[in-house]
Structure to design on (320 residues):
């Protein structure tokens, strides 16, 4: 296989950016991710790739649930905040206000336009990321008119 | 769960648009899809949701391989051509020139900026779409400077 062709063609896939959070007992993990897509209408499923050697992965494996906060086009800086290990103090996640997810307890960022919570139905571990097939069990929208962030417009790539 | 919240939050996920093709013996299937993401760097995996009751699904199930042609921002009309059942005559796929994929034999659209071919490693059938976890086995790029189509900019939605 042409390695350059593989890198460039896979980088042509378009993505949004999302902050995934999980909470098990007093342990909270968070991270910015882009490998996420819907996977079924009925039941409502998503498929999400999470780096297998990450703290976020550990907490999701234990809990079997997580939350997704969807970033608006104006929130590139917020995405960047969750490239680093996060802190959770009161309801402040790395300094950002959150609400506990009604179903998962995972912190949901108040300043994002929409969110959903999922329960893992299957975890497939054949690559360097685990693919979670997960059912949407709760969701909410704060700003229906929001235009979600397109990863390409940030100049970042995670893929190839 | 708030049905409106679910619909609107899931529609905030950003996607590109892709033409997926598969060929088994003389049978060719094609369709425009958006539920696609990378899922691993090593090995290079993608995860793709394909409608379970579609002809494309039938051919992928038999063949275990398929090809993905990536649409440029100028190719909304091309995306629309593959919402309908396709024809394959010579190397013309619904009237568009193709090359046979070097590994899968599936037709790859000549006018798209990039493509890759995959072999299915796992098929997960717990929703109304099958999730294929598939390894990228061949790939090529014709226009490195292309800006791939963002589904939101077409005004179409497939999700929610």
């Amino acid at each position: 296989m042409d390695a350059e062709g593989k890198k460039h063609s896979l980088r042509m896939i378009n993505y949004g950016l999302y902050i995934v959070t999980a909470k098990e007992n007093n342990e909270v993990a968070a991270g910015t991710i882009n490998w996420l897509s819907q996977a079924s209408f009925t039941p409502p499923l998503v498929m999400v790739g999470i780096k297998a050697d990450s703290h976020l992965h550990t907490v999701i494996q234990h809990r079997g649930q997580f939350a997704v906060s969807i970033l608006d086009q104006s929130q590139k800086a917020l995405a960047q905040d969750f490239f680093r290990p996060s802190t959770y103090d009161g309801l402040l996640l790395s300094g950002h206000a959150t609400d506990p997810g009604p179903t998962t307890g995972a912190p949901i960022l108040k300043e994002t336009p929409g969110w959903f919570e999922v329960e893992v139905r299957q975890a497939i571990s054949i690559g360097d990321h685990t693919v979670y097939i997960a059912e949407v069990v709760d969701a909410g929208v704060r700003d229906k008119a929001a235009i979600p962030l397109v990863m390409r417009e940030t100049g970042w790539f995670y893929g190839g």
User: Anything to note?
Assistant: Chain A has one domain: 15-154. Chain A has a mean pLDDT of 97.
